Amino acid sequence: MYVKKFDLICNRQDCPNGKLTKDKFVDLYKMFFAWGQPEKFCEHVFRTFDMDGNGYIDFKEFLLALAITSEGSMQERLKWAFRMYDINGDGHIEKPEMTLIVQALYEMLGPAVKNLPVDTPEQRTQVIFDKMDSNKDGCLTLKEFLNGCLEDPTLAVLLNVNPMEQ
């Protein structure tokens, strides 16, 4: 099953060496989100998939990411999402990091954002931090992130981004 998905995404013509580049990754998202602008969001997802930071997603990274995002436990998927939101990789999510991801999601969703109950990425980030930042220090630890999502199913759905099912 995973081999077929990888072959569909990274065919021999587009990825002759079996390595999915960031540009090809963006092109794939554009097929699914033609009405929005997925480029910025793709950068964050790609960074999280490219676990060794070499600039492409190989088959092993693809398998691991797909297994976690589609078949992993809720906690595994949330840990993956945490890594995506933690842009600088310091083990904490600060408001500016989350705002960048939320902004990228809004841009990718395009007109569909009009249906969201909160108007701006900054407002959405503030709502999330109000619910999750238990010690009110302005950043989220993995523990706060997991606890917040597990205690509030709405937050879990909102933050547990599964790029392979978008």
UniProtKB/TrEMBL annotation:
Highest taxon in the source lineage: Eukaryota
Annotated ranges, domain EF-hand: 37-72, 73-108, 120-155
Record-linked Pfam families: EF-hand_7 (PF13499), EF-hand_8 (PF13833)
Transmembrane region(s): none
Keywords, in A-Z order: Calcium, Metal-binding, Repeat
PANTHER family associated with the record: CALCIUM BINDING PROTEINS, NEURONAL CALCIUM SENSOR 2
Name of this protein: Neuronal calcium sensor 2-like
Organism of this sequence: Limulus polyphemus
Underlying gene: LOC106475269
